[in-house]
Design a protein that fits this description.
The protein is an all-alpha fold. It has one domain. 63% of the residues lie in helices and 2% in strands. It contains 10 helices and 2 strands. It has helices at residues 13-27, 68-100, 111-122, 124-135, 152-176, 190-223, 229-247, 253-273, 277-296, 316-337, and strands spanning 40-42, 48-50. A two-stranded antiparallel sheet has the order 1-2. A hairpin with a 5-residue loop joins strand 1 and strand 2 (48-50). Helix 2 (68-100) packs antiparallel against helix 3, helix 4 (124-135) packs parallel to helix 6 (190-223) and helix 8 packs antiparallel against helix 9. The chain is globular and about 55 Å long. The N and C termini lie far apart (67 Å).
């Protein structure tokens, strides 16, 4: 007589659910942006380590890092920025003094000097992303947009809208106060053409580099020190904006206030849109238009950028209003397109 061994009964439903949850916790969940956002990740040693990003937190406060990592990354980035700018501008001054007889006391921007300044700032963007990704063990794409992916449509919408906005503000300034807008001494020389070429080629890189550094890296790095999401976001937004204002090295209260508010507005755009398309688009558009106009009305010589006391004034309120209007445009657009 043949005997059979009865099959073991299936595990209770609750146990099976528990097993499935354990598998999901180990593998990680997928966010809408295609990036992994688990509560915990499997470490190479077989244990678990905390995830470096949190999809439930807003962009700008979405990193989860050990306290010491921002303490290393932030000073390295700020020091590197100053060293790169000083080194490149020093080389240019030496070359222009030796080759072209430039006056060492001349503070105007020649085409070569503009290229040095812009490229020294442009390189900081990739460096900020690289350091944060490597030291913080953060997915580099999460520093550009999170939890979604970057959007080509956003690039087009924001570049178009901001170009119209900045051009309109400049036209208003030209009517109200041409001298404050820098529209008083038009000339076209070889220096002018050189500056225009350098501005068009390098200013977008400079503006994008600053956004990658300050809004892509520094804002979430500072915010990662705070556990609660809202206080973390406020801390990161304010802290990165103050740093942005200070690194422009102006002691004029109007200019310092303008640069800080500009940083706040760029940070607000990043938070509202959950990415860097809007702040990069506005920063590029604003700087490029201002550089082109400033070059055309520099009386055919080098471009003067004077940030000393007395160079700012109440007319800066117009530019601050433009920054705030840009934030409002981002809020309206994101409110329409976000599901």
């Amino acid at each position: 007589m043949t005997s059979t061994t009865p099959a073991p009964p299936p595990p209770p439903l609750d146990d099976r659910r528990h097993d499935a949850d354990a598998v999901r916790d180990a593998d990680g969940a997928q966010t809408a942006g295609g990036m992994q956002s688990p509560a915990r990740l499997q470490s190479p040693t077989g244990g678990q380590r905390p995830a470096s990003t949190a999809a439930e937190r807003p962009f700008g406060a979405h990193l989860r890092l050990s306290w010491w990592k921002p303490l290393v990354i932030i000073p390295v980035l700020l020091i590197s920025m100053f060293v790169a700018q000083l080194a490149l501008t020093f080389v240019v001054v030496v070359v222009e003094v030796a080759a072209f007889g430039r006056d060492p006391g001349d503070t105007s921007l020649s085409p070569l000097m503009m290229a040095a300044v812009n490229l020294s700032l442009a390189v900081m963007g990739p460096l900020a992303v690289l350091l944060t990704a490597v030291i913080g063990r953060v997915p580099w794409r999460s520093l550009l947009a999170f939890p979604r992916r970057m959007s080509l449509r956003r690039w087009g919408v924001y570049f178009g809208g901001f170009t119209l906005l900045v051009a309109l503000a400049l036209a208003i300034m030209a009517v109200l106060d041409p001298a404050a807008a820098g529209l008083s001494s038009f000339a076209l020389t070889g220096t002018t053409v050189g500056l225009l070429v350098v501005a068009v080629l390098s200013t977008p890189l400079q503006a994008a580099g600053e956004e990658l550094m300050f809004r892509g890296a520094l804002m979430p790095l500072i915010a990662s020190w705070i556990r609660a999401a809202k206080p973390a976001l406020v801390t990161g937004l304010i802290g990165s904006s103050i740093l942005f204002g200070l690194v422009h090295m102006s002691v004029d209260p109007w200019l310092l206030s303008y640069y800080t508010v500009f940083g706040l507005c760029m940070a607000a755009m990043a938070v509202l849109s959950r990415g860097l398309e809007a702040p990069i688009a506005f920063h590029v558009t604003n700087n490029l238009i201002m550089m082109i106009v400033g070059t055309l009305f520099a009386d055919g010589g080098g471009l003067e950028i004077d940030r000393s006391v007395g160079m700012g004034g109440p007319f800066m309120l117009v530019f601050i209003a433009v920054d705030i209007a840009a934030v409002a445009l981002v809020w309206l657009y994101e409110r329409r397109v976000r599901p």
